[in-house]
User: Which sequence fits this backbone?
């Protein structure tokens, strides 16, 4: 046996980049091997003049999840993956930054050569958003054999505009030649628990109220009830009286018949069960089985997956079933038929709303710390009524601002269901051993139903439900959606060698893409007639007209590609595609996009042969990609509203554009790939730049035109950056191997051009006066809001007069206070294998970028958090009255001179903190609540034991392994208080804003894999 020391690789690495993340396992990756590229065509990786990166199937299957794309996090340099954390919620996957200011920036997913629909949808009403997920979750990860990520436009040009943001190419498992039926079985159970670092920590000194504003003289912390103190139950803050266990106070439970405290006062103390009591352990059961077989003529594979589980909140459930099959049959020696199909059903109950009116806004922004969640649970199950802590008065126990959370979860929930079929059929005919013809037809489509209900007794507020208008105290809404896509491909390929040293690969093809979408949204108006009957016909008033959308788009494409190889060392490749889109005006609906790339395999150079360099390649590419828009953007159309019971028709507020042109992206990239010491050390370094011009945007216009905005072709956005993928094998012996994989990237997108006279485009507008923007000559995703006013030395200026004396002066809401983009992100994965035991762990890092927290903006003002309770500079509780030594002096300066001749001196004004006045938005501008979104996370740990073959020789088992996996186990470092910096509203372009975010979970899974 060789000594271990002979296989230890000592390497000193220096780099100007902070390298962090993992990708290719060099023990399994042949750097000169074959990868699947656009249209499902296999190519030698050394000949490619653009960046690709492969992911082993095990890396996305070892962690059981309902949406496999969340497991892509940290596996590819430049790939940014963000999960909403909601049951059945969306996962946002972007590559190399943002290209479109207001359009789609998601990557294209392709399975066995055919694109799959990956739409994400949400219910959006006034202040409420329900993330209903994205459809790529329908892929069963157990069916995946290989994943290859195509990064640049040159790599994806043959797919057309849909792949302008990159493509993830998935190849599914196939049956293999075998004398018996191969059976693979996988079963896992996952347990998720709330990470309490991402839940609020509440102060424990003060209870319900906003200050000493109650009682007969409006100078007490309590109201009066029969001569005894009564908590201001109608308030939703914790800026009230100091807790005193000897003080008996009438609280809301005293006025609910059946309550254990009905008719009596109770001690004034902090609740024994804060809102963390609400969250439960979530269990997910994931079972998958497949059978396969093959011979020289035919192969087949059939699989079934079932996922069942609940989320961390009561009354949540997910049930998913997936049936997948593929087969190949050699009709003749030259003609082969291939089939792939998958049918998926998924239903969920209780997807949880975010947005300002999401229930977490109650817990994070407007809460009374004397309210016990165990009492709220018991009071709901007492009679299943809305017995809220936030009642109007002792005589009117209906809620004022907030429902009982258990009533909301069990009565006012959203359910949805989806049925989907995706599949393709192809015929491949070899005319000769050099020429192949392939025809393929693919279909992908689903029916989707969203069911939203609001029970009688709910809080009436400004949230509508479905097409309803105005306040709705109860109601029902139903949305039915149908989305279909067909692709018809014909591809001819040619491979040959002109001489011993010159090779050629070429293809010609055509594609017809047909996309259809239909949606019908209906709902009650004015509430329900009969409580508990959820039907549109059970409407108190005449329902509004349904909202119906019916669109279709076709794209006709022709394309060609040719690659020349010289001496198996130099490769030149070019492609061109022409698309005609029905979504664009006739005069502008045709667009071309070419690409070109060059590659040199430098390890073939004579002077580098027999050196420590095993493989080396330099590459460069340039591509132009066109892009169209959604259908129905050319001609103005009418919409119908029935606000007053009579249908009224009006033109669309955003004017369409009959002269619209296609968007155009110009992409340039270059890179180098080097592998040393028998592939024990290697890296792939790439640089890229994308410029997307003629962006299709809805820009504001003068109201005299009759419209608020008009769709126009304006602007340019540039995305550029570096990518690094590093692999290192420090130790390699007969029994023990240690591999390290690192990925790092710093994509940055900047708005370099807008329309004449336009300086900014608002992407999203939110409470707190905060907007997310595309601002001219600034990085995309600028966060704007009010900021501090500074003197010439950078000191914060404080008001010296009026009601705001002693508080910070602030600018208007147009100040730049942050940006949602990270400076860089990546991860590091360590893989250790000892005999039959393997251990891997992955650490993800994000550096830079900011987010605004509405939770802190309001929650600090209402006195929820420990930061509002401390001993001040005088040695007294800050919430004491000024007379009792309370209050605080905000650090900063005041101007004792004039505006023209300022004289700044240190602030000495003490502000009162006894009531709702001194914290949060009451004293600070929005910029105070912008936080660094950086983090370091232990993303994944996996321990696997594979039974040795010698133990299986006398059994019917061919293989068996047992795994213990942990996911999101530890947030090692973060700066956002009481929340996960990755949490947001949903997928999409608008990030950098947090409100009512759900807590994240730690997930521990146990998995068994058996092969028969």
Assistant:
């Amino acid at each position: 046996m060789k000594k271990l020391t002979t296989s230890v690789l000592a390497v000193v690495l220096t780099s100007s980049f902070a390298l962090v993340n993992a990708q290719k396992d060099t023990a399994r990756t042949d750097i000169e091997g074959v990868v699947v590229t656009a249209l499902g065509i296999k190519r030698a990786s050394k000949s490619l003049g653009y960046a690709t990166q492969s992911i082993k199937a095990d890396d996305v299957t070892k962690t059981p999840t309902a949406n496999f794309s969340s497991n892509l996090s940290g596996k590819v340099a430049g790939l940014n993956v963000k999960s909403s954390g909601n049951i059945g919620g969306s996962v946002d996957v972007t590559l190399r930054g943002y290209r479109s200011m207001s359009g789609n920036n998601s990557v294209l997913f392709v399975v066995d050569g055919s694109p799959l629909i990956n739409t994400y949808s949400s219910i959006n009403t006034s202040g409420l958003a329900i993330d209903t997920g994205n459809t790529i979750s329908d892929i069963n990860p157990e069916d995946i054999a290989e994943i290859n990520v195509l990064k640049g436009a040159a790599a994806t040009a043959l797919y057309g505009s849909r792949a302008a943001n990159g493509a993830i190419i998935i190849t599914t498992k196939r049956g293999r030649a075998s004398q018996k039926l191969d059976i693979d079985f996988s079963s896992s159970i996952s347990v998720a628990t709330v990470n309490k670092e991402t839940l609020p920590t509440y102060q424990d000194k003060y209870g319900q109220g906003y200050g000493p504003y109650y009682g007969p003289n409006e100078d007490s912390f309590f109201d009066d009830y029969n001569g005894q103190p009564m908590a201001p139950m109608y308030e939703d803050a914790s800026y009230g009286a100091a807790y005193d266990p000897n003080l008996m106070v009438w609280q809301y439970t005293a006025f609910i018949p059946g309550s254990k405290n009905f008719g009596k006062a109770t001690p004034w103390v902090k609740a024994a069960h804060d809102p963390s009591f609400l969250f439960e352990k979530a269990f997910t059961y994931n079972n998958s089985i497949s059978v396969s077989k093959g011979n020289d003529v035919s192969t087949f594979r059939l699989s079934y997956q079932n996922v069942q589980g609940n989320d961390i909140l009561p009354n949540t459930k997910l049930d998913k079933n997936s049936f997948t099959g593929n087969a190949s049959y050699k009709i003749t020696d030259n003609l082969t038929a291939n089939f792939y199909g998958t049918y998926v059903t998924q239903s969920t109950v209780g997807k949880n709303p975010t947005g300002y009116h999401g229930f977490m806004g109650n817990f994070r922004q407007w809460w009374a710390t004397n309210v016990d969640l165990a009492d709220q649970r018991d009071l709901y199950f007492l009679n299943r009524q809305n017995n809220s802590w936030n009642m109007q008065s002792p005589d009117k126990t209906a809620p004022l601002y907030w429902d009982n959370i258990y009533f909301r979860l069990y009565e006012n929930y959203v359910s949805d269901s989806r049925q989907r079929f995706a599949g393709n059929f192809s015929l491949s005919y070899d005319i000769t051993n050099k020429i192949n013809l392939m025809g393929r037809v693919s279909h992908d489509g689903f029916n989707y139903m969203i069911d939203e209900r609001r029970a009688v007794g709910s809080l009436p507020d400004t949230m509508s439900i479905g097409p309803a208008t105005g306040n709705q105290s109860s109601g029902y809404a139903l949305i039915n959606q149908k989305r279909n896509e067909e692709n018809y491909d014909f591809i001819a390929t040619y491979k040959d060698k002109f001489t011993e040293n010159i090779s050629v690969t070429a293809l010609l093809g055509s594609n017809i893409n047909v996309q259809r979408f239909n949606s019908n949204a209906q709902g009650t108006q004015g509430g329900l007639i009969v409580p508990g009957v959820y039907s549109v016909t059970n409407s108190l008033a005449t329902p509004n007209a349904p909202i119906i959308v019916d669109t279709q788009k076709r794209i006709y494409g022709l394309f060609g590609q040719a690659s020349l190889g010289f001496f198996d060392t130099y490769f030149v490749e070019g492609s061109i595609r022409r698309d005609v889109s029905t979504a664009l005006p006739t005069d502008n609906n045709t667009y071309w996009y070419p690409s070109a790339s060059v590659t040199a395999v430098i390890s073939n150079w004579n002077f580098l042969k027999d050196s420590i360099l095993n493989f080396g390649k330099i590459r460069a590419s340039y591509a132009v990609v066109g892009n169209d828009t959604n259908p129905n953007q050319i001609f103005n159309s009418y919409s119908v509203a029935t606000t007053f019971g009579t249908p009224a028709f009006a033109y669309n507020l955003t004017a369409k554009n009959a002269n619209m042109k296609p968007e155009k992206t110009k992409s340039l990239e270059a890179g180098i790939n080097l592998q040393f010491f028998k592939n024990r050390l290697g890296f792939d370094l790439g640089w890229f730049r994308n410029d997307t011009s003629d962006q299709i945007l809805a820009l504001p216009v003068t109201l005299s035109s009759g419209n608020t905005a008009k769709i126009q072709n304006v602007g340019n956005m540039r995305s550029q950056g570096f990518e690094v993928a590093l692999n290192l094998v420090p130790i390699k012996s007969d029994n023990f191997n240690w591999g390290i994989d690192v990925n790092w990237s710093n994509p940055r997108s900047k708005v370099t051009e807008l329309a004449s006279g336009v300086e900014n485009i608002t992407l999203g507008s939110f409470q707190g006066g905060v907007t997310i923007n595309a601002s001219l000559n600034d990085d995309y995703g600028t966060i704007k809001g009010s900021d501090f006013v500074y003197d010439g030395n950078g000191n914060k200026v404080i008001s010296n007069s009026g009601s705001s004396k002693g508080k910070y002066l602030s600018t208007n809401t147009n100040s730049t206070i942050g940006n949602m983009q990270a400076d860089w992100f990546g991860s590091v994965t360590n893989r250790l294998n000892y005999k039959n035991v393997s251990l891997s762990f992955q650490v993800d890092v994000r550096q830079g970028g900011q987010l605004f927290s509405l939770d802190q903006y309001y929650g600090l003002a209402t006195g929820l958090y420990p930061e509002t309770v401390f001993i001040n500079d005088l040695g007294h509780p800050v919430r004491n009255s000024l007379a009792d030594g309370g209050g605080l002096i905000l650090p900063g300066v005041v101007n004792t001179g004039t505006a023209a001749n300022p004289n700044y001196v240190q602030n000495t004004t003490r502000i009162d903190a006894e009531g709702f006045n001194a914290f949060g938005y009451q004293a600070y501008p929005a910029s105070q609540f912008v936080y660094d979104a950086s983090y370091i996370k232990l993303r994944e740990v996996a321990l696997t034991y594979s039974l040795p073959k010698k133990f299986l020789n006398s059994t019917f088992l061919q293989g068996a392994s047992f795994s213990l996996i942990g996911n999101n186990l530890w947030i090692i470092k973060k700066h956002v208080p009481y929340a996960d910096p990755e949490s947001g509203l949903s997928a999409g372009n608008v990030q950098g804003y947090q409100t009512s975010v759900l807590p994240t979970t730690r997930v521990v899974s146990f998995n068994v894999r058996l092969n028969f």
Observations:
- Residues 1-31 have pLDDT under 50 and may be disordered.
- The radius of gyration is 31 Å.
- Residues 854 and 994 are 6 Å apart (CA to CA).
